[in-house]
Amino acid sequence: MLMGKEKIVPVLAILVLFIGIASTIYVDAIENDEKLPENRLIINEHEYSFEELSKNFQQETTETDDGEKTGLPLEEIIIYSGVNCPSCNKYTFKASDPYQQTVSWDDVKTGILTYDKEYNLRVYFPNLAHSFWVYNLVEIEVSKI
Amino acid sequence: MNDKMKIFAGIIVFGSLWGFSECIIGPNLAGTGLSSSMIMTGFFAMVFLTMSRLFYKKRGMQVGMGLIAGSLRYFNPFGGCQVCSAIAIAAEALIFELIFDYLSELDLNQIKRFTTKAALGVFTAYNVYVGGYIITQILTPISYGSFYIENLISFLPTILAKGLPVALIGAVTIPITIELSRVDLKISDKLYYPTTIGISLVCWISVIGTWAIFSA
To answer: How far away is chain B from the Cα of A56, in angstroms, using its nearest Cα?
Structure first.
């Protein structure tokens, strides 16, 4: 039994290395696949640039547990993108890597969209954990609850 | 000396050291541009978990360490998500415990071949990191009532890929820790409790003190 386990450990290690390498190749392939130009994102199937959105909406400041953040109000942006019944939908914020988080309309109403060199396009939700603060944002998908 | 008390003190001191590394060293590594979560798991978590397992040879001890380190991380004023990190630490300890429970008949000090020790490092570090990451991605959204399985599935390949560098760090960390644990570092009974309590207090005071300074 002892020898068996000593022999199985290298086999298990090779297996996890294979999974890690295969996943790295896969992730690299999908990341390079379809990249939007920096500073642009798709909201409800329409493409916008941050400059374009900045011209239409006034920046607002919100207090988070990571200090004050200034950006464009997500609530107004979503309505601008043509969503008819905002509370009837859920909103999935997709990053380029492809990390994604889904939130409700109540959370969207508290959120802001920012742009900077470090995080590119990013959303902040003061009432949610930081894992919901998706950065390198490329799409906001709107779907029925 | 009461063995149970000795193990309890061991849980506190190793858990505190792990939590201290996560709270004080981790954020400074992030500032250098290195991936702090990978180094924290691949190096610090592996060192403290393996060392405590080798010194005390007790089941369940690493879960206790995870709870201590996770609680300490919760007081951390720096970094991204305290809740997520605290959950990840506790989950990592649990996964380490499960792996070493499965390998319980394997006496780590008796493993001669470097390749076996390195393989143990690869397997353990990879699973601890990936498992901890996945559990965090499930429990954090659940705690906010917003868990969607499709979000996890879409990010799963990235999590599995991120585990690769951690596995390679573990391939070095665990063999070195096993070798170091062969050095006889016995502390006399008279000094055991003052040392463990002292080290634990330094860790807790540093983290809570930093939190108090930055939240003032």
So the answer is: 30
Q: Work out the minimum CA distance from A26 to partner chain B, whole angstroms.
A: 7
Of A27, A101, A130, the CB nearest to B157: A27
Q: Which residue has the tokens 């200090």?
A: A67
How many angstroms separate the Cα of A18 from the Cα of each of A15, A123, B158?
5, 35, 14
For residue range B118-160, list pLDDT tens digits in order. 999 999 999 999 999 999 999 989 988 889 999 999 999 999 9
Instruction: Quote the CA–CA distance of B64 and B67 in Å, as a whole number.
Output: 5
Residues 6+ apart with CB under 8 A from A119: A135, A136
Residue spans of the domains in chain B: they are 3-215
Residues recorded for chain B: 216
CA distances from B95 to A132, B88, B118 (A): 25, 10, 18
Of chain B, the end-to-end C-alpha distance in Å amounts to: 42
**CB within 8 Å: B163 and A26:** no
Q: How many domains does chain A divide into? A: 2
**ipTM score assigned to the predicted complex:** 0.86
Q: Are residues A56 and A5 in the same domain?
A: no
Note whether B158 contacts A99, CB cutoff 8 Å: yes
Q: Where are the beta strands (DSSP E) in A1-145?
A: 40-43, 46-49, 60-64, 67-73, 89-95, 100-103, 112-116, 120-124, 137-144
Domain of A88, in residue numbers: 40-144
User: What does the pLDDT look like over B41-76, one tens digit per residue?
Assistant: 999 999 999 999 988 888 889 999 999 998 888 776
